[in-house]
Write a structure and sequence with these properties.
The structure is a single chain. The two termini are 37 Å apart. Helices cover 38% and strands 16% of the residues. The chain is an alpha+beta fold and 505 residues long. The strands form four sheets. It has a six-stranded antiparallel β-sheet, covered by helices on one side. It has a five-stranded parallel β-sheet with strand order 15-14-13-16-17. Strands 4-5-6-7 form a four-stranded antiparallel β-sheet. InterPro entries: Rossmann-like_a/b/a_fold. This is Asparagine synthetase domain-containing protein. It comes from Azospirillum isscasi.
């Protein structure tokens, strides 16, 4: 079942399994797994689009994505998509548009003499065969534990950034091959805090209601029919507490669960059942059996070695089998774009066009200790793109640390986790992966964003009783240090391996 829910675009059909579907998209062939939703839509200007994945409308005044696309013209796509959330990709034979955070990825390179696009490094590696050359494996939380974009970890293969639009009809060395798409719309002047919270609440609640509605549609529910179950992976943190509040306010059926793994904090073990009871929903504590070596190899092949996070272990140990088959799991990873996540780690005031910025970013993650030089080269290439395209936010450049989270952490690290979960037959749904939502959140004062006051206020508006339990309660120092010990040993092994690789080279 490798490469579930994946796609390939090329001059030729590439059916990786007998049940894969092939479609002509105008001189190119789209090949994809049967469990990847794909809808063909004819726009108002006769442009033929193919919409992949699971986009959901968050604006109650706008039609759903398929209807909106049918009324659209090609030049208005950026405005059309700004209110969509979820994990999706929009393409025809002249343009490829990613979702706001690039969570449904697009890798591209030359295969058999022709440009080929694919949704994962694992698929590209299978197409390239012996030509594929993976760089040294990643290690969880050791330096940059993803392949920085536009790098991919594969020789000759690049990865599309969420602010880029790719034209597959043009040669890769053509200046128009990649063009800029501004991801965030303007926030109206005089937009008060109360209006901001009202709008953000409406986006989250509308998204979850429309997601629930979409899960019963045939193109999403799959050939077996029936509505897919909606779940929430609950922790003691802000993001899942906010999603719990929004799902309860949306008044849709859902349940919660927590993987009972070795690194689970006391708060993450004790609080989710209490929070679920407060919300009036079921909670499931799912055990994590021992790892299965073959499943671990399958996961590495499916992801192309692109994730070193614990999510791979949850497949390898069968924990995902405890979540209902076909479930769509609410996830809050994209919220961190507006939470100033890297403001304490990355030095302030870095200029993308300065000669030393890539090295300083690399050093901020102790990259020389854990990562190969190719990571730094990819950062240098990304910074060149950032310098060319400063207008991500209307009226001013986005802080480099926030843009790093969007285009590196989300489009690289988080999207690899999303793609890895595809192998399980379940899928993650990033509720906050919406340009409208992030534009408003990024416009809030920095002190509000850094302290997560906007999350607390949104929870207070939707489900104030959920604040009766602490958020991320501190754990005793001894327990905290013991929990960190396996990670530190893993980092030490990674650093030694990196040193040996450098000296042998």
């Amino acid at each position: 079942m490798l490469h579930r829910r994946q796609f390939i675009v090329s001059r030729n059909a590439h059916a990786l399994r007998p049940d894969w579907v092939t479609r002509d998209i105008g001189g190119l062939i789209l090949s994809h797994g049967p469990d990847l939703p794909v809808r063909r839509v004819l726009g108002a200007d006769k442009t033929v689009w193919h919409l992949l994945g699971l986009p959901v409308q968050t604006d109650p005044t706008r039609p759903d994505p398929v209807e909106a696309l049918a009324d659209s013209r090609a030049g208005a796509i950026a405005d059309l998509c700004r209110s969509w959330t979820g994990r999706w990709l929009l393409l025809n034979n002249r343009a490829v548009h990613l979702d706001t955070g690039g969570t449904l990825g697009c890798f591209y390179g030359m295969v058999d003499g022709g440009l080929t696009l694919a949704s994962s490094a694992g698929v590209m590696a299978e197409l390239l065969g012996e030509e594929a050359a993976f760089r040294r494996p990643l290690a969880h939380e050791a330096g940059l534990d993803w392949y920085p974009l536009p790098g991919s970890g594969l020789k000759g293969v690049r990865r599309l950034l969420p602010t880029q639009v790719l034209d597959p009809a043009r040669p890769m060395d053509d200046a128009g091959f990649l063009t800029f798409r501004r991801p965030f719309p303007p926030v109206p002047p005089g937009f008060s805090d109360s209006l901001a919270y009202e709008r953000m609440e409406a986006i989250l609640v509308t998204a979850i209601r429309n997601l629930h509605r979409a899960l019963s549609k045939p193109e999403v529910s799959g050939p077996e029919g029936g509505s897919r179950p909606l779940m929430l992976q609950l922790t003691a943190g802000y993001d899942t507490r906010l999603l719990l509040a929004a799902a309860r306010r949306a008044e849709v059926p859902f349940a919660t669960f927590t993987f009972d793994h070795r690194d689970l904090t006391p708060g993450d073990r004790k609080l989710p059942p209490k929070l679920a009871r407060l919300a009036g929903v079921e909670h499931h504590q799912i055990p994590c059996p021992p790892l299965d070596a073959q499943r671990a190899r399958d996961y590495a092949a499916h992801t192309g070695g692109h994730t070193a996070a614990m999510d791979g272990e949850f497949y390898a140990n069968g924990a995902w089998d405890g979540v209902p088959e076909g479930a769509v799991v609410l996830h809050g990873g994209v919220f961190e774009v507006a939470r100033c996540f890297y403001w304490g780690q990355i030095p302030p005031g870095l200029a993308p066009d300065a000669e030393d910025t890539a090295a300083r970013l690399f050093d901020a993650f102790r990259g020389k200790l854990y990562n190969p030089p190719s990571h730094c080269e990819a950062l240098r290439e990304w910074l060149a793109w950032v310098a060319r395209t400063p207008d991500v936010l209307p009226g001013g450049a986005m802080d480099l640390r926030d843009r790093f989270y969007l285009e590196q952490r989300v489009a690289g690290w988080l999207s690899a986790i999303d793609q890895g979960v595809d192998l399980t037959g379940r899928q993650l749904f990033q509720v906050g992966n919406c340009a409208d939502f992030l534009a408003i959140a990024l416009a809030l004062p920095v002190d509000v964003r850094r302290s997560s006051q906007h999350h607390a206020e949104l929870i207070r508006r939707m489900a104030p009783d959920l604040l009766s339990e602490p958020i991320n309660p501190p754990q005793p120092a001894v327990l905290r240090q013991l929990r960190k010990l396996p990670r530190r040993l893993n980092k030490l092994r990674t650093a030694i391996g990196h040193h040996l690789a450098r000296t042998s080279a």
